[in-house]
Every structure is written in C-alpha cells, then in structure tokens.
Give the backbone structure.
Amino acid sequence: MNEISAAESIKFLKNKKINLAFLDVRERELYVQGFAFGSINCPISNFKKNVNDLVPDKETVVLLIGIKNNKEKFKLFKTLNHLNYKTYFSIKDNYKKWLKNKFPYWTGEYTFSKAFGEWVEITSTIRNIFPNDLNKIHEKKNNYLQIDARPKKEFEKFSLPFSVQCSGGELPIFINNNSNLKKNYIVHCAGRTRSIIAYQTLNDFNFNNKKYALNGGTQNWVLKGYQREYNNKSKINLTKINLKKDLSLAKKIAQKFKIPSNRKNNKNKENYYFQINSEIKNFKKIKGWKTVNATTLIQNTDKFIASTNTKIFIYSNIHSSSVFAVIWLRRMGFDAIWQIKKPPSVNKNYQTTKPDPTYFFSKRHFGNKNHSKGYLDWEHSLIPTIKRWGCLKPWISLKKTNLNSIKHTIYKVYKKF
C-alpha cells in the first residue's frame, strides 16, 4: 500500500530531479513541537481541502509522515487517489525510525522561512540598532522614518512609538516618492525575520540611505523594559504612488537579479498563481489567482507552497511587489516567475487561508518575557542546527545577484544522509 521506510524516503528527499511535496498530517499543535525538516503541515482534519492548494501539480511525488494508524493511512490514500495524484507514499512507523536514525528534525512555526531570515543576516550586511539606542533616537527626535514592516492588521494590534506601517512587499513603491526618498530608515517587525527582509529589500532596490534594523523587534523592545503602543491606525492608504515610475524600477531590479518573467497567458492549473494584494490601493482580484500579502508569502511560505519544483507565477498591479516576491522566493529555492502582463482568469478555486493559532512560545506577543527570549533564542539556533546536519550552505549567499539558477534547500540538506 505505497508504504516506505524512513530510510527509503531519503532517496526521494535528496533527488533534485523529483518534484516533491513532503506533508506532515498531524494537527498543527503537535506538529510545531517537532517535525521532519522540509515537511509542510497539512492536517488530516482538513487534508482534502488544503492539499489541492499546497500541491497543485498532480504529478508531484507526495510523501506523507505523521500517520497514526492504518485507518488514517487508508483515508489519506483514498483522498489522494480521488484527487488524481499519481505517486504517493506514507513513511511507516510514524516518527519512530525517523528519530532513531537521527534524520533532520526540528521545531517551530514557519521554521523554514525563519531559518532563511537568519541566513539572510549571516550572508548579507544588516546594520542592527538595539532598543536602548532606538529609545535615545526617540528622545532626540532624530530624522528617521521608522517603519513597521508587518501587514496592517498586525501593526494595528501593537507596534512601537513613532512607527509608521508599510508591509515589506510594498516598501519599494512606498519609499520611491519625493517625501520618503530623502529620509533615513529604521525597520522593525515583531521579532527578526521581516525586519531583516525589509532591510535587505531596501538594499536590493538600491535605496542607499542610512538604515538600521531593530534587533529582536518589538519582543526585544519589551525585554529591555520599554512599552509598545496599541490600537494604532495605519495611514498606508494615503501614500502617493506613481505606477509608471514603479514599473521602471521593477524592470531595472528584475534585470539586476536576472529573474525570469512572463508576458504570455498561462492557464495551466498545475502551477501556483499568486496575486500580490496591496494595502496602499485596492485592485480588482483575478479569478483563479490566490491573493496574498507579499511579505506574508515570504514569512509564512509553508502555508502556501509545498512542492519543491512547481512553477510559481507572481502578479501584482504594483510591479515592484511582484519583483520583491520573486526575488525572495527564488533565493529560497522556489521556481518563481514575474507575470508582467495582467493575466486572464484561471479555472481554479482556493480555500481561505486563515491565520494559525500560536502554539509555539504562544505568549511572546503578550508581553511574556520568558516566551520572548525563548523565541528569539530559538531563531538564533536554526542555522547552527542545519550546519550540524552537514549542510553549510542551505541557501545561496545574499551577495549573489544572479538568481537565474536555483535549487530547493531540501535537496541540499538531505544530500548528506
């Protein structure tokens, strides 16, 4: 019944010629406490609805782990067969042999993206500022534009004093106007990843003004004894934008990084199609394209993408947001393509992507210092963990600008096993 051992599954995980989706079917609360590297959470309770979104290409090899018993296995196989997936296997013994063999295993929420964020800081040049120094800047009222790089909903729950909101995927068009181009920048998020991405994005798009990323974000701010601000109101929709100027910038940066682009109409349902939404201006949704915030797509990649080699088409009316997403996805090893021309609708339907409950250091955003410190320490542990598995370069260096050739990190990590 398509059951293989943990050792046999490694042959698939290290073969870069195979388009692979590695799915952990346990409920998320259990999944975040420990899971196989590269496995994407697709709980059995909602498996049938989510697997089509996570794995659009039916030719993808699907590996299943975390199955409790034969009843669950038969249910999952029946679903995959009904949905016309061609090749799928379950890994027997649940996690017993996986752990016994000491195969790659770690913990956390959106761990792959978090580890990638740490890699960005290691291989780039991120200038950090620390809470005490930021507080001094607040007291002196220096000329910095302090940007919370999270989406609007998160910013309006809590942020830092003097912050304005602009999600990282819209930073290029937000900055590229007369009022913001002349300033210096401090970027932050709740923790680390999105501020690191935002800082590097300013470099990617050639904004050479003086800039800093707040080390540890709002969590480190609280750890140092400072207060956050609550019930903020984003004014991002008041930003004046120039779409013609933005397209010119997008083309220039796309050429800089040699990212692939597409102008043709493509209706192949077995690709990923993402329309980047905007918090600055409302644009009409395209049927069959899943709308997503650009920064959320990078921060929470495993909520949207499970296949290693399936093509990912990215479109936005704000072209720099498309280029932003393509650059970051390709750095992560995904085959992302900039859709330049506005595409036609595709005969696809998507499930509504809901935020997951926070199970991992769950009180970190409620002022709990132990959870905040534990979470930040966990983030710092991710790259050392990958290196202990024998993979010294899980992603390409951020100093590299040619993103034409990419390889998913799964194949790099499992190559040593």
